Amino acid sequence: MQDEFDTIVVGAGPAGSTTAALLAEKGHSVALIEKDKFPRYHVGESLMPFCYFTLERLGLADKMDEIGFTKKFSVQFVTEDGSQSKPFYFFQHYDHPSSTTWQVLRSEFDKMIMDKAISNGAMLKELTKAQSLIEKDGQVTGVNVKDNSGHSYQLHAPMVVDASGRDTFAQNKRKWKKRDPKLNKIALWTYYKGALRDPGLDAGSTTVAYLPGKGWFWYIPLEGDIVSVGIVGEKDYLYREGNDISEIFAREIENNLWIKEHLSCGKQFGKFWSTGEYSYRSEFCAGDGLLLAGDAFAFLDPVFSSGVFLALKSGEMAADAVSNALKTGNFSAGQFESYGRELCHGIESMRALVYAFYDESFSFGDLIKAHPGMRSDLTDCLIGDVFKDFSELFQAVSDFANVPTKLKHGLVA
Ligand SMILES: Cc1cc2nc3c(=O)[nH]c(=O)nc-3n(C[C@H](O)[C@H](O)[C@H](O)COP(=O)(O)OP(=O)(O)OC[C@H]3O[C@@H](n4cnc5c(N)ncnc54)[C@H](O)[C@@H]3O)c2cc1C
Q: For the whole model, what pTM was predicted?
């Protein structure tokens, strides 16, 4: 059995499979380690328009329509009394195929990218868990893994990319995790069948509906007449009367008229899910022979559906950075400095917008009324065009909300 590779990628979610697919396409030998068996369930169904560009590079943009994922043309915001903002139609901002994005079943979406990695030549080892990093003089040289029959063995490579998602395999081993204390929310979610869809173009829109104290619902229409519905808020607020999630749902639905009306004809099915430990970023994005991508590097509150986009984009950036390291034979952490800098810049743009969203004194309407010229920059942020200079936008936002200082960490060890 082959146990030497150019790169080992841990985790076959969007970040890991993108890295593996693009590295294999460039002719590098790649082992892709996945603890689960795909297709597997995953939360995070609403995509951002700029996912398109990584999907296009992977040769998968056309496949998205072939599979028939729900088309998403816009995002809209709904106040507590149920009044709806005018939807932000992405095509009004940028007339390009990327302006139509999708709501996806993650089981199918993630498998599609994983299959691409395999067809490009990556070697998948599923039902196989990365247990620990193999290190020599501080340099990562491989991974100790264990398969589902209990067999443990070693895989070796000069580069390991950790894309293990919120399991944060390398961050945990290295004690690099740093929480974002102000974004410490929890999420509760479930699924409904037969709930109301808005007509026409708005049928696949993501709706963010407010709860008192800046909590919010997500309402994401999926294929098969299914809607993903979640609540995000402070733990103390949501669990104030107990921790039965179905009861919390029943209570909070009464707090937003739009949600109440849309769910009135739907039937909840399956389990209620929850997660805490919300936003974090690793102290470092790289060590010698080690690079972090997707949620394994950073996780941001999902109010603007940025997670899959950042996973795809960082997967793409990681593949380019690792390919370069393989060409030069330089696997030191310093080789990945610009990867970390650029990625953190994009994450910071989204993070500042998330902070504004949770600020009691902020509203998109007030911002645009006071600074009409900022509509374009704001929409850029909402579609994922985040790797540019937004200083003017956040100067304008600071009239209404606290703009957080950029986190200093997230660069190389
Ligand atoms: C409540 C909630 C709602 C969200 N909503 C949205 C949304 O609407 N839109 C959006 O874009 N994003 C959303 N997100 C974020 C989104 O789900 C993630 O950002 C995205 O899945 C990250 O992709 P990834 O590839 O980094 O990690 P993942 O998709 O989590 O993939 C990681 C993979 O690594 C595997 N793995 C883990 N540990 C190991 C190990 N030791 N060995 C081998 N394999 C391992 C896992 O099994 C998994 O398959 C949401 C997140 C949460 C928590």
A: 0.98
**How many angstroms is it from 211 CA to the middle of ligand 1?**
25
CA 219, CA 273: separation in Å to the nearest integer?
15
Residues 240 and 119 in one domain: no
Per the structure, the complete domain to which residue 13 belongs is given by 7-69+104-179+280-342
- Cβ of 305 below 6 Å from ligand 1: yes
pLDDT digits (tens, 9 = 90+) for 288-341: 999 999 999 999 999 999 999 999 999 999 999 999 999 999 999 999 999 999
**Is any ligand 1 atom within 6 A of the Cβ of residue 13?**
yes
Neighbours of 18 (CB within 10 A): 33
Within a domain: residue 316? yes
What DSSP element (H or E) covers 287?
strand 284-287
**For residue 28, what are the contacts with CB-CB under 8 A and spacing of at least 6?**
6, 7, 322, 323, 326
Note whether residue 389 is domain-resident.
no
402, two tokens? 């606290």
DSSP states of 212-274 as a string?
Answer: GGGEEEEEEEETTTEEEEEEEE-HHHHTTT-S-HHHHHHHHHTT-HHHHHHHHT-EEEEEEEE
Does residue 298 line the site of ligand 1, with CB under 6 A?
A: no
Is the pLDDT confidence value at 88 over 90?
no
**Whether residue 161 sits in one domain with residue 27:** yes
165 C-alpha to ligand 1 centroid (Å)? 5
If one counts the domains in the chain, the total is: 2
pLDDT at 363: 86
Spell out the residues 6+ positions from residue 11 whose beta carbon is closer than 8 angstroms to its own.
Answer: 33, 34, 35, 162, 163, 164, 165, 167, 169, 294, 296
